[in-house]
Amino acid sequence: MYKRQQAKLLKEWGNFYSSVFDINFDKKRLKGFLLPRPRWGYKGLMLIPERLTLGEAFDVCTEYFPIYTQYNNLNEQVCNNDRDCQFAYAIRFNESQEPHDKDIRLLSPVKLRRNHCLSMTLLERLIYGLKFFIDTGSHLDLKNITVCAGSRDSCGEVPFIYTYNEKIVHIKTASPYETDSNVYARQVFL
């Protein structure tokens, strides 16, 4: 059953990247690709292709909905990520419109790293938000804010994302030491 589920998910993500990004996965390279096993509450799966950049993801998002950032060049400025795209990889996460990782809600990005808690990078959050919008017609983070604690910009700040008026997505930055009751990291598992 796990192999059938794996094949289905790989096909779904392959179709997404093919139709939205014009990226075709080399089936030979994905043969034997291991997906992280589902965990209780973290059944969502995301596949990130090799060499996909933040700039590419942001540009594709602009084709689907209004999105703004205070960064001039995402690829150069958000340069420190827990995971990079030298190779394709997959993560498990909680599939929800609003972040629900209450166990880590009031932990700052610095404390998350100290506790070895992995959370979404800015690239992963952009991809999840784009796919969610294409699948549902709605945005993520309508009531709360996702801090992308798996990423840091060149100044050491952490990007965060929220949706304004249920239609405009914003990317801004905050100190890695800050916390707030409506700011959540989205935990991931490899």
Helix residue percentage: 25-40%
What is the mean predicted local confidence, pLDDT?
Answer: 91
Biggest β-sheet description: 5 strands, mixed
> How many domains?
1
Question: Compute the gyration radius: what is it?
Answer: 16 Å
Order of helices and strands: HHEHEHEEHHEEEEEE
Poorly predicted ranges: none
Oligomer: single chain
| Overall body shape | globular
- The number of helical elements comes to 6
- Secondary structure class reads alpha+beta
Please provide the count of β strands: 10
**Spatial order of the strands in the main sheet?**
2-8-7-5-9
Please state roughly what percent of the residues sit in beta strands, choosing from under 5%, 5-15%, 15-25%, 25-35%, 35-45% or over 45%. 15-25%
Distance between the termini: 20 Å
List the helices and strands and how they pair.
Blueprint: H1 2-21, H2 27-30, E1 44-48, H3 54-64, E2 67-69, H4 74-77, E3 80-81, E4 89-93, H5 109-114, H6 122-136, E5 145-147, E6 151-152, E7 158-164, E8 168-174, E9 183-185, E10 188-189
Parallel strand pairs: 2-8, 5-9
Antiparallel strand pairs: 1-4, 3-6, 4-10, 5-7, 7-8
Helix pairs in contact: 3-6
